[in-house]
Each structure stands twice: as C-alpha cells, then as structure tokens.
Amino acid sequence: MSIFPERLESWFRKAVPDVRFCSLRYVGERSESLCVRRGVVEPIASGEDAGVMITLADGDGLGYAGTCDLSAEGLQRAMSRARDWAARTAGHMAFSVAPPREPCRGDYRTPVAVPWDSVPLRDKIDLLRAQSDRLHTDPRIVDWDASLWHSETEILYLTADGTRVHQTLNQMVPGLGCTANDGPETVSRSFGGRGFCRQGGLEVLDQTGFRDAAPVLAQETLELLAAPNCPTGTMDLLLAPDQLILQIHESIGHPLELDRILGDERNYAGTSFVTPDMFGRYRYGSELLNVTFDPTDPGQFASYGYDDEGLPARREHIIKDGVLMRGLGGHLSQQRTGVDGVANSRATSWNRPPIDRMANLNLEPGESTFDDMVGSIERGVLMQTNCSWSIDDSRNKFQFGCERGTVIRDGELREVVKKPNYRGLSATFWRSLTHVGNPATREVLGTPFCGKGEPNQVIRVGHAAPACVFTGVQVFGGES
C-alpha cells in the first residue's frame, strides 16, 4: 500500500479541474482474522482492499465518484464522473455546501509495540489453541472459541487547495466466548462482550488481560447455568463498563449525531429525541455526567489525527456536568445546524462518502470506588456484559439485557443471577446517575460494528467508561 500515496498525490495534482472544491481520499486496508472454535482451527480470513473517492463541488453542485482503479487513467475517469454528477445536481441541492476550513497538513500513526507480522502465524494459532483448551473445562460447555482480528488501514486525504493528511491505523480485536447447556437451559459468557477493541499491536492482549481470561469465563458460565433468574422490580442498578459502553453508544452517541437530528437518517437508522435548541441548556443527566469526544487517545479503537474531511481531531466535552454542550457532527452538519460539533466526518472505506459518526466517546471517571458504589445500594443488581439491546427510532425508549448479574442487598454483593435486563428512557435515565466510578474502575472498550447510512456503512467506535450507579431503574428477569 505504501507506494500509492506518492503516486496518487502527483496524479491528483495534475488531474484537478478548475472547480470550487476537489478532494481525493485514498483508503487501503489489510486484515486477517484467526479463530479456534471447539479446539478446531477455522479457515483463516484475510483480505486487502484499496480505492479512491473523489469529491468535487462545481458551482452549486456536488458530485462523488469512487474507483479501485488506482492508475492515472482510473483517477481521471473518476474525476470526470464526479464532475458530471456535480453538473447534474446543480440547482437541485437541498442545501448549499460551503468550502471546508483552512487547508491543513499532518500525519498520524497508531503507536505499535508488538507488530502483528512480527509474530509467526503458527505462534498466534498456538496461543488461540491454548485459550480454547482453557475454556473447555466441563462437558456442559458445548461451544467455545478464541479469536484474534487485526487490520491495518492507510488513509491519504488531499484537497486541491493544499490539504495533505496521511494516517496509518492498526486495530486489534481479541475475542473469547463460552456457552454451556444443561437440559432446557443455555447460557453464555464472553470477553467483555467481545468489546476489548483497541488500537495497537499484539501488546493489546496483555493490556486487556486476554491471556488470563479464559478460565474465569468458563467458571462464570457454569455458575450462570445453576443461577436463578434476575429479580424483577424497581431498584438501583450498578453497570459495569462492558455494559455501560452500550448505554453510552445507544442513548448518548446516536441521539447526538447531527445528521440524525436533521432527519437525514430517518429512513434507515432513525431520528433523535434531541432537537437543535437543546444544545447549551438541556440537562441530559445528573451533575456527575461528563462525556467527551476524544479521537486523540492513541490506545482507543477509533483514534485518529484528522477526520475523513481533514478536520484536526480534538478532545471536546459533549456533556459537561450533565448539560448538553455540543453535537456529534462534522463540518457540513455544523454549517446546517449552527450547532458546535466535532471532527467526526468518517467513512467506512474508500467507496462511501463521510457522514457524522461516533469515534471515541467516553464517560469521564468520577470519585467513587467500586466498594463505595456497592455499599451505597440497599437493593439492586450489578449487571455485566451486554448481550441484547433494543431502542426505538428516536433513540429514547430502550431495553437492554446482560450476560451476568449479581444481586446487591444491604450494601453487599450476594448471589449471581442470570438473564438480567433493564429498561428506561434516554431522556430521563442519565438523570438518575448517582455514583461515577473512579479511574480504577475504568475500562477501555469499543465495537467494530456500528452500522448507519444509506448505503450502509459499518464503522469502528471506541468507548471508555467507569462503573456507574443509577437509581430507580426498572429491572426484570428472563421470565418476565
């Protein structure tokens, strides 16, 4: 992939027509996925993909064209198609597209301590075989797997007026899963809901505790098999980070995307209960709620130096002391709404235009220890690891299920329960936040599979969060 940026830049500078705006975004990705399931090595999945997207504004028209033909001729054909589409859309645009910001130049590279290719394939397979064996500790465990997924993505963004941004991102996703059965009962546990996604190399395995997790997951799976169902009622809820990330993602991240608020996503991904007039004054949560957008954290899954329209990444408060401050919208959405946004115009690959997407969206730690939070609860449940979710089209009414629960009674952790669930409304749920865990309770996680857009774009998102306590939550078990 490394030979393309230099050639593409030369070809692009020669091919740019005399138009109001023109950009090239090259994306090349190499990936490999390894899995050992039930002690058997599954076929290795590997792939390479590379291409270019041209964006061109001419007069009041806008055109896109993508191509995987990376020759000078292929680039020229894509440029011509984009210009033709700009001519076709002139006079028919729903809104005007102002030129982007001042040109910028920069480079960004994921810090990597142990490169993926520095460890032989055989050694990586042997590691997964060993973890798979450690999961199968009992005949009642009927399915188990250990996996590693790695990708390296190179991005070059150029504009006719001088922007040049070059980035190389390395992502790692380790996974463990364990399912047990006894008669009519089947339960599962996974490694953080397969949410321990990070940027980096194989050092991520040690950062996340991957090498030591399998025996614990196997034991917890068998424990769940014999556990009673979660109790039902209104009570306090202590959410572990691997569940809280889903709560952040669905009931803060998606409703604050500005293109969704504008109605652009209504047909597919949905709309939002949030309206533009709420920014700067709406109480989204209690005073303990502080949420930041931070692509600058190099260890998180969706870190970068610049978004896919060349806007420099910065850490920004989205919610501060419970008050909604700014939206998750890039350059175009900020123009259309007049609402402050962030550098989050992102595309899944070279063959999609960038749209408003989450990157690293984090709930900032507070001051409570884990013992403090448990001790504050007279009647409640600790819930860990998301396994199911449902939320309405406006990202308001939700219902989430977890893999594992632990009853809290009189300030102490008691019996383990299975199939714990809870429900609520985004517009009120975060106001019931009473304790935010300190940095010792914080975990860095994410998801590789956030879908949105027409045609669909699946993108990688990072979340970091501490454990948190919410009061007066509707909790219910698997038989409700």
**What's the overall geometry?**
globular
Profile the largest sheet. 9 strands, mixed
Estimated helix fraction: 10-25%
Distance between the termini: 54 Å
* Strand composition percent: 35-45%
Structure description:
The protein has helices spanning 4-15, 72-89, 121-135, 204-208, 210-225, 241-253, 258-261, 331-337, 370-375, 426-429, and strands at 21-37, 40-41, 45-58, 61-67, 105-109, 141-159, 164-182, 185-190, 198-199, 233-239, 291-293, 316-320, 323-324, 345-346, 355-356, 361-363, 379-391, 397-409, 412-418, 421-425, 433-436, 443-452, 457-465, 468-476. It has 480 residues and is α+β, with helices and mostly antiparallel strands. Strands 1, 2, 3, 4, 5, 6, 7, 8 and 9 form a nine-stranded mixed β-sheet that branches. Strands 10-17-18-20-24 form a five-stranded mixed β-barrel. The chain is globular, with a radius of gyration of 24 Å.
